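Good morning C.,

I know you're traveling, so I'll keep this short. The sequence:
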Amino acid sequence: MKVILAIATVLMLTFVACTSYEPYARPYGFPRIEVPGPAERSYTNFSNQSCPFTFEYPVGGTITRDLKDSCWVDIQFPDYNLTWHITYRDVDDNRSRASHFEDYRRLVYKHSKKATQITEAEIKGPNGYGILFELYGTVGTPAQIFYSDSSGQQIAMLSFYYRTAEKNDSLQPLTDYMKEELQHMVQTVQWK
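The tokens, ready to paste straight into the viewer:
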């Protein structure tokens, strides 16, 4: 009896294993985004003629826009499909640092239509201070920085934008990594 049951099982498995199935599309999975660990990170120095500051940014970033007549720079990270936009403002007699800050703050809060939360945190570096805006929800820019020198006469503004339609929970490791890199950038800013 056991022999007949074993033969029947082998024959059944043979027929089932040899049956051809129609292929079908598998559902999409969530992307796995690998970011370098703290020991693996390396940086390159940003410096140009039109910007009165230098800083370090992660290797892997490529400067895609560097205008010769003004300090408006884009650093693209093709591996992560995101861009840092950096602009510079010089405080003159007509507008104060507070006036520039309020204009920038107004721009940040235009994202409140899509953002579930916007937080502001003070940031300090060895050569300046500013505000880090963190945006949560379905927004294209999860962080923006308003940063000035200690005298308040020079202002750098930075935001990073995703160029992808991935869900925020899939992008969260990358967002956390980029926020750490923005903090590193703040710590390495040198005004000329």
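Safe travels,
E.
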